[in-house]
Design brief:
The protein has 419 residues and is mainly beta. It has one helix spanning 133-138; strands spanning 2-9, 23-31, 36-44, 65-71, 81-87, 101-104, 110-117, 144-153, 161-170, 174-177, 184-186, 192-195, 202-204, 211-213, 220-222, 229-231, 238-240, 247-249, 256-258, 266-268, 275-277, 285-287, 294-296, 310-312, 319-321, 328-330, 337-339, 346-350, 356-359, 368-372, 384-387, 390-396, 399-404, 416-418. Helices cover 1% and strands 39% of the residues. Strand 6 and strand 7 (110-117) form a beta hairpin.
């Protein structure tokens, strides 16, 4: 008997919340016969390099991973470590030396995987997987178990991002599986697992909390109702519907993801030149990933976008457009074109992950430029200069921000935050 769990890693799940823009998505498959839990996570926004003896991914040490563990507690509560993978603080919590694999992916994210099993050494308190076998094996679809995965960094020693284990499928779930060709795969009305495999598939989730994987090919998803998890896979996918709190990883390819429901969603474009259009009235979180992406906080118009969205371009030369609410907008690496529209927006620029960005409509009366990773002595006003098209902020190292159409005299210290 097997039970599958999804794990969504976010800074908002930490106690207290960290506000981190790092994120991750993972699965844990528990086998009640073998008493094993196979785990796999894709994590971005932190640097595993130093922890595994590899070259640092970024110059900053703040995002260096120091520890990763499974902990036991319900959501909203901090709990003790029960099974560890990386621990530069206490090596006694490095318990998966036989299966652990950590690799840097081509898009800059990291994959961490392994198996928690009875042959692994117990933690210093004597805890093993058998202590959680009943809870993992009896979880029904939609149930959160009192286990969470936590990623610690130099900046956030108590944990930067964490995610609760929530059951998404078991042996009683409806499984719909495609072929190597072009399939039409409808859900069966409940909590489905839909696997497209190869080919250009059409996948219809329908009702229920579904898990959908397109696999290779140009797939077309309509997620339907429910809180769904979508893995697009490789290919130029089209993903829509999303009438619930959905989590989408579009994967490689030039994908189009568009929705307009009242419930906030979390979307990762992945590699490729993606088009991602969020809902008007929902507070969405959108990560473009690698590639030249178009990210927009609304479906119809900026005036209709009344919820505060979090928009992250990632790597590439992105166009990121907010709505008429207080949005958080970060272009990421590359030369990005950023528009906040109305609302008190926060534009985020990082010391070591920027480029030559342009902000088209910075409003000094309400918008803020947040500068992350800079020394407290950095004086943004001294780094401003007048240009023909506006005012430029020199971030050093060839990085800059052009505030289009704004004069030097319009800026004050209140327009900047050193974070």
């Amino acid at each position: 008997m097997s039970t599958a769990f999804r794990v969504v890693l976010e800074g908002s799940q930490e106690v207290p919340a960290t506000g981190s823009t790092a994120s991750g998505l993972g699965t844990v498959i528990f086998d009640s016969v073998a008493t094993t839990a196979s785990y796999s996570f894709r994590i971005e926004g932190v640097d595993f390099g130093p922890a595994i003896g590899a070259a640092p991914q970024t110059p900053s040490i703040l995002d260096d991973v120091t520890r990763t563990h499974f902990h036991t507690a319900v959501a909203g509560v901090n709990g003790p470590i029960v099974f560890g993978q990386i621990d530069t603080v206490d090596p006694a919590f490095e318990q998966d030396n036989d299966d652990l694999a950590i690799v840097l992916n081509a898009d800059g994210s990291w994959s961490e995987s392994g198996v928690w099993e009875t042959t692994d050494p117990p933690n210093p308190m004597g805890v093993t997987i058998t202590d959680f076998a009943d809870q993992l094996g009896s979880a029904t679809v939609g149930m959160a178990v009192p286990l969470y995965f936590n990623v610690h960094t130099s900046e956030f020693g108590g944990g930067e991002i964490r995610g609760q284990l929530v059951a998404i499928a078991d042996d009683n779930a409806n499984v719909v599986e495609g072929t190597a060709g072009d399939d039409l795969l409808p859900g069966l009305g409940g909590d489905d697992v839909i696997l497209g495999r190869a080919g250009n598939d059409t996948i219809q989730g329908g009702d229920g909390n579904d898990f959908m994987s397109g696999g290779p090919g140009d797939d077309n998803f309509n997620t339907g109702a429910g809180n769904d998890v979508v893995l697009g896979g490789t290919g130029d996918d089209r993903i829509g519907g999303m009438a619930g709190r959905d989590i989408v990883r579009a994967g490689d390819g030039n994908d189009t993801i568009a929705w307009n429901d009242p419930t906030g969603d979390v979307v990762f474009g992945g590699r490729g030149n993606d088009t991602i259009l969020g809902g008007d009235v929902a507070a969405d979180e959108i990560h473009g990933g690698a590639g030249d992406d178009l990210i927009r906080a609304f479906t119809t118009s900026p005036e209709a976008a009344t919820a505060s969205d979090k928009l992250f371009g990632g790597r590439g030369n992105d166009v990121v457009i907010g709505g008429n609410a207080a949005d958080t907008i970060e272009g990421g690496r590359g030369d990005d074109f950023l528009t906040g529209n109305d609302g008190a927006d926060v534009f985020v620029f990082r010391n070591d992950q920027n480029g030559a960005d342009t902000v088209t409509d910075f409003d000094p009366s309400e918008d803020v430029a947040q500068l992350v990773g800079f020394d407290a002595s950095f004086d943004p006003l001294a780094a401003l200069s007048a240009q023909a098209a506006g005012t430029e902020l020199d971030l050093g190292g060839g990085n800059s921000v052009l505030f289009q159409g704004r004069t030097l005299a319009e800026f004050s210290a209140d327009d900047f935050q050193i974070a």
